[in-house]
Amino acid sequence: MAETAAMAQSSKAAEYFELCKPKVVALIVFTAVVGMFLAVPGAPPWDKVIAGSLGIWLAASSAAAVNHLLDRRIDAVMVRTRHRPLPTGQLSGNQVLVFSILLGLSSMLILIIFVNLLTAILTFASLIAYAIVYTVWLKRATPQNIVIGGAAGAAPPVLGWTAMTGVVDPYSLLLFLIIFVWTPPHFWALAIHRRDDYAAVDIPMLPVTHGLQFTRWHIFFYTILLVIVTTLPYLTGMSGLVYLAGVTILNLGFLWYAWKVLRARDDRFPMDTFSYSVIYLMFLFVFLLADHYLMIIN
Q1: pLDDT per position as a tens digit, 53-74
Q2: At what angle do helices 268-297 and 22-38 cross, to 10 degrees?
Q3: DSSP secondary structure, 62-98, as one string
Q4: Which residues contact 152 (CB under 8 A, 6 or more apart)?
Q5: 91 within 8 A of 85, measured Cβ to Cβ
Q6: pTM, whole model, 2 decimals?
Q7: Within 13 Å, how many C-alpha atoms sit on residue 156's CB side?
Q8: Which residues, 6 or more positions from 11, have their beta carbon under 8 angstroms from its beta carbon?
Q9: What is the spatial distance between Cα 163 and Cα 194, in angstroms, rounded to a whole number?
């Protein structure tokens, strides 16, 4: 009996963990933490790094849980999402609602008490922008949903920066711009692969409303724009040659994938591009961080 109860509790905990979209949230927290380190010339205060990371992680997890709750009906139809805890009945709507509220309140308390009020306000605004504005309205309103809604996902480096300094710095907005421009080609590659899912639930993703070739061109054009935007840290003096060399290699890879998506008709290329885009963003921020401390040493 005790073993069965323990297994049930473990399974329930796993379902709650899945609500938090751990892979997505990990990338969010990672970019926020890099923003924290870039905001200061040396090592940031570790108490604020820990509190800021925890607060941002809880807020992102809360937004993810709300997204599960609001999308539970379409999630039950889509192949990609029908295994989620709500469609499968592993968790109830009330359980998810309480869970998301507790995460959100904990996030705000941590950020207000241990970080600063501005970071708490901006984090809350990002939570609402993704969990409510994007999920409830933008996703169903326009095929440009991911472009506009990408602002919420681009906020973490700004949150990390303000956690350390208490101000919104222009360089933090440059990091925001990079993720904002990265989001459309990243997500549209997935949308091409999952276009039938979105069509089945009447979500106006670009491949559904304007066709595959139109979306391929958009991925290619946004990738070119991304190449331009990602050179700005070097051009503005935020970063040096180490970053420029690293991001140039990354950009050549992204351009190659975008070109293959545009010209080839192999269904594997959109998902390959989606996977590469995640690696691209992670290493771009690694290069930013490495360059930042090499510039300090030199």
Answers
A1: 999 999 999 999 999 999 898 9
A2: 20
A3: HHHHHHHHHTHHHHTTSTTTTTSTTTTTSS-HHHHHH
A4: 63, 126, 127, 129, 130, 133, 134
A5: yes
A6: 0.94
A7: 28
A8: 90
A9: 37
Q: What are the two backbone dihedrals, phi and then psi, of residue 14, each rounded to the nearest 5 degrees?
A: -65, -35
Mean pLDDT of 206-216: 93
Q: In this structure, how many other beta carbons lie within 10 angstroms of the beta carbon of residue 261? A: 27
Kindly tell me if the per-residue pLDDT of 5 is higher than 70. Answer: no
Tokens 């010339």, residue located = 41
CA dist 172 to 125, 177, 200, Å? 17, 9, 39
Mean pLDDT for all residues in the chain: 91
User: For 186-199, what is the mean pLDDT?
Assistant: 91
Tokens, residue 232? 């700005």
Helix, strand, coil content of the chain in percent (nearest 5): 80, 0, 20
* Per-residue pLDDT at 8 exceeds 60: no
- Alpha-carbon span 24 to 278, nearest angstrom: 10
Enter the DSSP assignment of 40: S
Contact in structure between 269 and 260 (CB atoms under 8 Å): yes
Structure tokens at 27: 């990338």
Element (H, E) at 216: helix 212-230
* DSSP 8-state code for residue 18: H
Task: Please report, as a single letter, which amino acid is at residue 179.
Answer: I
For residue 41, what are its two tokens? 């010339």
Tell me the residue type at 78: M
